[in-house]
Amino acid sequence: DVELVESGGGLVQAGGSLRLSCAASGFTFDDYAIGWFRQAPGKEREGVSCIRDGINTPYYPDSVKGRFTVSIGDAKDTVYLQMNSLKPDDTGIYYCAARRGPVTHCSAKYFNSGDYWGQGTQVTVSS
After folding, report:
1. Were 92 and a residue from 5, 38, 88, 112 both cysteine, which residue would form a disulfide, CB within 3.0 to 4.6 Å?
2. Which pairing describes strands 10-13 and 121-126: parallel, antiparallel, or unpaired?
3. Element containing residue 10 per DSSP (H, E)
4. Average pLDDT over residues 12-27
5. Does residue 2 register a pLDDT over 80?
6. Backbone phi, psi, residue 17, to 5°
7. What is the torsional sign of CA 22, 27, 30, 32?
8. Please, are residues 58 and 35 in contact by the beta-carbon 8 Å criterion?
9. Is 7 within 8 Å of 23 (Cβ atoms)?
């Protein structure tokens, strides 16, 4: 079974917005740390947002702070990433991931030790 499925990617002009969704199958996010990551060609996967609902305020790196917002749906089975004021440097494949427990690091390495990764959704921002 596919555990996490991302959707909402696409092509957008610089300055525009996209809202990504990450839908869980077989579990809810109540007991999980959640991360959004992106990977551009030739670059390492980097965290753009991590959250443990009700425990910590979300983490954002400086590169997206003030532009990206993560949220969790009421049913706790879908996570969203609202991306505003998009830049060409935001282009990449966006993944969501879940790991049982706290958010101690917003890194791909940390979440690789966890439970689930989605298949990714492509985001392309044109100049």
Report:
1. 38
2. parallel
3. strand 10-13
4. 95
5. no
6. -135, 150
7. negative
8. no
9. yes
Tokens of 13: 């002009």
Write out the DSSP string of 44-64: --EEEEEE-TTTSPPB--TTT
Amino acid letter for position 45: R
In one-letter notation, the amino acid at residue 23 is A
Looking up tokens 């996967």 gives 45
Find tokens 């997206």 and name the residue. 64
Calculate Rg over the CA atoms of the chain.
13
Q: Given the structure tokens 């996490």, which residue do they identify?
A: 4
Q: From CA 49, how far away is CA 64, in angstroms rounded?
A: 9
**Rounded average pLDDT over 66-79:** 94
